[in-house]
């Protein structure tokens, strides 16, 4: 806009100066021509005047000669003829000089003199008769005509002697004037030509200057154009202008081609640009918005604040046959001209990476929050218990890893692997739930889900286990971070005197309660933890999760010998979970059966003559042999024929079979069909026995008998 | 700006109408606005009442909620503008989506303010409206 204005002004100036100089040149040439013509006339006049100078004397001389001839009565015809010729030439030349436009006073005076002189001579030259009487021979006397002629000649001679000199002087002066005029004119002409040359030089210089500046400006314009092209080529935003018909102009930045995977945008409407990329509702809003931009009602900041295309999700081909979602940011700026909005500049940025980054940030923020929650949760957990759990969980996950790596070929082998994974994971999940370590429990649950999905598959291959390996890695990493956090927490607790004292107390008590393993010289052996708080908290959580009222009474758990601690804990967790999910009925069910709303779970551990006995009893729904059989048939653990041949005792034993569960829904706590088989196996592993007795609607009681601890210690050692 | 904008102490004076279904919000807007030249001529809690009141009081400046019973703000804006094209309408809404804002602007609103807002934001938006 500014550029073209300057250009126009420059062109005008150039044309003006050119015209002026051409006019000057023209004037100079015309004046020069006129001056040259004038000079030629002057020179002619000068030549004539110079020639005329000689005439008066010549005329005087010829008059004298004529008179002499007449006096001696000699032949005068020739002399008269000469005089006649001279006078005629003089008169002609003088008239010609006068007619040439020469108006000098000298000429005027010369003419005046000649006017007086002319008639005098005229009377002489008109003579054409016989000057002598008889003949034109010598010695004769003058005739009458001759006497008159002689008198005229004498008058003319007299006049000539008086005036010829004056006339000659006038003519000489005239010649001088004419000469001066000529030389003046020559000087003028020289000046004029000089001026013309100067004007031509100035014209040439001006032309050169303007040509130079023009080419400089053209170069600058070319440079500017090139720079604009470079900018448009390099800039990462997509730039284009929209006209009043919402059409894209002829210039756009190259980024636009990449963003929209198309080459040509010229003349495209904004609607057409977005048509296939966004939902129709968004397109309609965008179109309305562009219309509002062209109306000048709302100022730019307001328009910016309601820009509906600030983060536009577009779906487009990724060039490999697939679809790709990208986020584009449109910014609009009005370009004002002299008569309102001229264009709308549209800047498009691909903000996909920043949008994804923002999401990642949000996720990590959520993760951090979850970690914080977990940390706060961990603060309520006895550090020793936590460390013990982490150790167990890590061992368990290592076992899971080993199972995953186990070579398997047949479907049966794969299924066996899955069953093994299931049991281990289930047990870890159970412990994590007890400690309220939901982040771990949910991760294990997810892994368990994957195993569950695999189980449903008709055919299995090694590839089905790959995602589990990845998930397991993630789980182990998480476990490490929890351990780190626990360490930091412990360090924090150590700096708080009260907490440190409490921790010390816990330590001491643990040592006391574990005489067989807690000897100071064997620090590697972990002291027996107090199970009670963990179990109570688990019971409370289970009751809350399953909308049941549960009262847990524990007795004698402080006497559990160290070698049994882990197993007893696992068993109790499993049984408590089963009791809460399967055993204890919902309060309204209990009420209907005239039972107390609160179900009671009793745990009793005590020494017997040749070992220990753990009794676990709930006053819940109990188990009906037929229900157990039906569930086992459904799970294909037994066939209906087998079931028919089973007595009550055999039916009860079904609960210790792998994969058995009566719960329909899978939850964190039960329903996976893993549990009691694990308990039974671990009891058998310690050389113990497990038994169950139940009464439908009344109770379920498990009794676990374990050999004396010393025997186990030595056996283990 | 309008035939009913009157000269008062050498300053132009504007009649203000507040439309919002929340009583608290109406009071908040009334108390927070700091313009001497604004004179509150009425408040309405829904679009229908707003229309009635508008016909009676002929305000120059209107603050408009969008989510209201009986007649929503978007429709109300359209009707007010049809009655008096020179009216200045500031939409004050908790609806954060840009499509609604564009819709309101298209119907004839002149400004948009998101709830919650600060006093300063409100006054800036009104000042912009009266410019």
Task: Walk me through what this model shows.
The complex is a heterodimer of chains A (717) and B (131). Chain A is α+β, with helices and mostly antiparallel strands and 717 residues long. Helix content of chain A is 64%, strand content 12%. A five-stranded antiparallel β-sheet of chain A has the order 2-1-5-4-3. The longest helix of chain A has 91 residues, at 144-234. Chain A is rod-shaped, with a radius of gyration of 68 Å. Chain B has helices at residues 23-32, 47-57, 73-83, 98-107, 119-130, and strands at 6-8, 11-19, 38-44, 61-64, 88-93, 111-114. Chain B contains five helices and six strands; from the N terminus they run E-E-H-E-H-E-H-E-H-E-H. In chain B, helix 2 runs parallel beside helix 3 (73-83) and helix 3 packs parallel to helix 4 (98-107). Chain B is an alpha/beta fold. In chain B, helix 4 (98-107) links the parallel strand 5 and strand 6. Chain B has a single domain, classed as Rossmann fold (3-Layer(aba) Sandwich), CATH 3.40.50.2300. Mean pLDDT of chain B is 85; it is low at 1-10. The chains are: A alpha+beta (717), B alpha/beta (131). Chains A and B meet through helix 7 of A and helix 4 of B.
Based on Cα principal axes, name the global outline of chain A: rod-shaped
List segments of chain A where confidence is low: pLDDT < 50 over at least 5 consecutive residues: 509-527, 670-674
Approximate helicity band of chain A: 55-70%
CATH fold call of chain B? Rossmann fold
Put simply, the count of helices of chain A is: 22
Please report the total strand number of chain A as a whole number.
10
Query: How many domains would you count in the coordinates of chain B?
Result: 1
Main interface by residue count: A-B, 16 and 12 residues
Radius of gyration of chain B: 13 Å
Number of continuous helical runs of chain B: 5
Residue-averaged pLDDT of chain A, rounded? Answer: 81
Top CATH class of chain B: Alpha Beta
Main pleated sheet of chain A: 5 strands, antiparallel
